[in-house]
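Title: Prediction job returns without error message
Component: structure pipeline
Severity: low
Priority: P3
Assignee: unassigned

Description:
Job completed but the reporter wants confirmation the result is attached to the right record. Sequence as submitted:
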Amino acid sequence: MEKKTSEKEKRSVKVSFSPIKELVVHEIIKVSVEDLLRERITPSGTMPVYWCDGIVFSFSSVPMNKRVVDDYLDGKIHWMEAHYADMENYREVLELNDEHYNGSMKVRAIDTSKSLLHSEFSKWVKAREKQ
């Protein structure tokens, strides 16, 4: 007896994983937590920061062009600039009290300690500081 192939089986999709192999950071700047939060406040609201293994940080990516896309597809990503501050313990919400904002502004922090990329970035930052 022949097994019938379902429509779902006929339409199967291969799923593959291609992790990042290299992160190129073009500029790295240590700032205070307050300055890091200030840069995440926009007229439209606040953008989150990332926390990983004792540092809180943000980054901006290089604008996409053919070369950057080719690098990305080969597992190499570029951060134009990364700003970071030491923060030993994770907190979900960080608060900035600044007279320019007539009170306090809250910025969300995302715990990315499970990200291999962010963990390696954090280790790299800490190693640089020891040099």
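Comment from assignee: result matches the submitted record. The mean pLDDT is 91.
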